[in-house]
Amino acid sequence: MRSFVARFPVFVFVTIALAVQFGMVGFVYMTVPDGLDVNDVPLAHEVFRLRVFFPLLLVVLITYYLEGSTGLKKLFGPFLRWRAPAKWYALAVSWKFIMGYLALIIVLVQGGAVEWVSPDNLKNLLLHMPFIVGIAVVEETAWIRFSMTRMQSRYSAFWSAMIVGNCWACWYLPMNLIDIGTPLGVPDIVFHSGVVSLTVLLIWVYNTTRSGTVLLIMQILSNMAFFIVPVLPQGMNDASRIIAYGWLFVVVATTLVLVFGTKNISRRGRVRWDDQDQVPNEDGSADLALPEVYSGQQRSRAPSV
Q1: What is the C-alpha to C-alpha distance for residues 143 and 133, in angstroms, rounded to an integer?
Q2: Which domain holds residue 217?
Q3: Three-state secondary structure of 129-154
Q4: Rg of the Cα trace of the chain?
Q5: How are beta strands 278-280 and 286-288 bridged, if at all?
Q6: In the chain, what is the greatest distance between 2 CA atoms, to the nearest angstrom?
Q7: 145 within some domain
Q8: Which of 63, 125, 128, 252 is in the most buried spot, having the most CB atoms within 10 Å?
Q9: What's the domain count of the chain?
Q10: 49 Cα distance to chain centroid
Q11: 45 lies in a domain?
């Protein structure tokens, strides 16, 4: 059993995570009567909230089972790697707002009606902040830290992103099917392609910066932005803005792959699970060195591995 899990840890994680997700969402769907919201049924509400954190629990258990406390340090260590050029923090804070407002401009140019801010959502944003931070930690740990770095040990960054991104999107599929927990009116293909595009964007940043802190901020601001920028549909037949956003996101992800290449989606080597404490070279190999990964910093010249 251990050898199977060690050989296919991402497969084990995805299989169990999807099975539990479909099971728990199905339970919620069966428990909530027609005409009521999930928040109106306490048991369904608690189950629906708790299922969000199951992927984090699962990757912690798998990692500890395979590597003990050393593995847990690998899993969470990059969240403490905050040293990155200021431009990456600027991108982390602003990227979702830039994308959202570009989508609004596209809709406006096409003759659609747009608004530029959602001031009424500020209270909801503050109320949801603990959950926004929590889900960001879960998703970055489970889908990027655990899954992507392991996949990149075997496959190129592009194919790793395609595999993990589609699995990540499928994790949301049962919620999209019953319209609980995801925004109403967002076409399923737009939501799915958005998650895959997000995976490409995140792995570009992570392979370049090696900073889990930057990724965490990106994900937190990603979830915050939709409370401020009115891109999400206001009804079931009001999807023009989110469709524009979705197509724009696909274009951005495709551009990153074309510019930086499929091998690493970065000018640096891709991050692999077993060499996360190493400094990548341009060709994808790594030097044993300090965590700093930028040319202006001192690093050792140990032989490559």
Answers
A1: 15
A2: 81-288
A3: HHHHHHHHHHHHHHHHHHHHHHHCCC
A4: 20
A5: antiparallel
A6: 65
A7: yes
A8: 63
A9: 1
A10: 18
A11: no
